[in-house]
Amino acid sequence: MLYEISSTTLVEWSRWQFAMTAIYHYMFVPLTLGLSFLLAVMETMWVRTGKEEWLHATKFWMKLFAINFAIGIATGLILEFQFGSNWSNYSWFVGDIFGAPLAIEGLFAFFLEATFFAVMFLGWNKVSKKFHLFSTWMVFLGANISALWILVANAWMQNPVGTEFNPLTARNEMDNFWEVLFSPTAMNKFFHTVTSAYTLSACFVVGVSAWFILKKRNLEFARKSILLGSVFGILSILATIFTGDTSAQDVTHTQPMKLAAMEGLNEGGNGVGLTVIGFLAEDPSLPSTRMKTTRYGIAIPKLLSFMSYRDPDAYVPGIQNILDGYTSYEGITYPSIEQRMANGNKAIEALTSYKQAIQEQNQEKADSSLQILKENYGDIGYGYLESPYDAIPPVPLVFYSFRIMVGLGMLFVALFILSWWYAKKRKFEKFRFIPYLAIACIPLAYIASQCGWIVAEVGRQPWIVQNLMPVNVAITRIASGWVVTTFWMFAILFTVLLIAEIGIMVAQIKKGPKMG
Amino acid sequence: MLRRAWMLYYDGLRNMPRWARILCIIIVCKLLIMFLVLKLCFMPNYLNTHYTTDEEKSNHVLNELITKP
User: Fold this and answer.
1) Which of residues 377-416 of A touch B (CB under 8 A)?
2) What is the dihedral of CA A192, A193, A199, A203, to 10 degrees?
3) Does residue A17 form part of some domain?
């Protein structure tokens, strides 16, 4: 009992620590991804037209970019430290699947971002205009390619493809790099994440510019920035919506439980509607407290079926259907979770027996154990679950986060259209609610971004690697007090960094661009 | 070429505005805290500190995989 309590505490604290670090880290990342593009466009406009106003705009936004970049740099390394200290089983188990993309990311981050960032930031009047512009575009490219590798690694955790488990080393080994890189999950994740980061950056540019409008300062600079930011924002949010739709289709196939949790859908069926808004409540008639009932729900009929399979009458399973086993729209039969737990137990027993056979040098036993392991490996993670209901993620957190993300996305569509229209007509300042809305959308864009990650990562629970490894198997068995201590150390470090970033950034925004 | 690259960094860093200098100090402090304090004292790589060979690490993880938590 004592072991159970400390083990649960350890898992929970390890998860909280990783979540907190990832949330803080991702506060710095999206602005780097999107603002670098806007900088490159502004500088291109300066090089092409020779208009000084574009140069001043570039230098102003570059200053804010540099603050964000400098404070955020290397914060992701703390996540890598945690892999080695708190998640050692996971880190060994995933082997080169994680190592290879992260090593490539390190090289790109170092050579492209860091090198060209120095030229971009320090090289004014020291290198030619064209080389400076080239460096700015390289910073954009480097940041986005870095993101690709990180997201490929993350996508593999959601949909482990292109690998084979080696029972001798206890590692997954990559047997098809291209399958890992170009899996639909990886592509959807990359494009959805970067386009949402561009949306956040557009909100930032429009919001900061709106502040200048309210203060009646640098009006022409602010108007130009709003026009550029809102056009970029409209394109980015449309791309985010499109890639969100394709991501949901991918989740339908690879993580149906996550989709059911996003919808709070207990019983699926044909022609299932999409819940626009609703409240989740406890329901004693449901078999598990992990399942909730939607109250006061407003749904668009058949939309979930349509979004999942492009057929308004398609069958979409709910949580209970997944627990009981079901036949998908494509005709694939999925066994019940209980059956998958039995398969998982067979895989774990086969792994045990394989290990013994190797030690005893019994080749026949090793071969038969390996055969059983291979047949059941796809369900090995289920063997660690104590109850089928353990396969259900925290539904309310996923359900509400999804709705906040989508709702805010719709708000950003309205913001960008209004901003573009009124900035173009030179009436932005006359409707004072628009600048205020634009400023409010800066923190809201960060909230939407974080909610997206909560849907992706909490919706995957209990898995750290989908179907193969639950979080409680992935952790290092160290004292939970140690994890608690480091949790607070990281919390303090990141909070100080965030306060520093906001403080320096606000001071530089107040100074404004140097004009003329 | 090398001299120009050196001068870019040298001049650039020497002539940085105050806010950029503050940023540099923050970066250096952050990296020192991360690598010298957090990584060395609080976040060592568990497998590397407890096992020396890959075989030992594999055995440890295999035991973890076949022993249910």
Assistant:
1) 383-384
2) 150
3) no
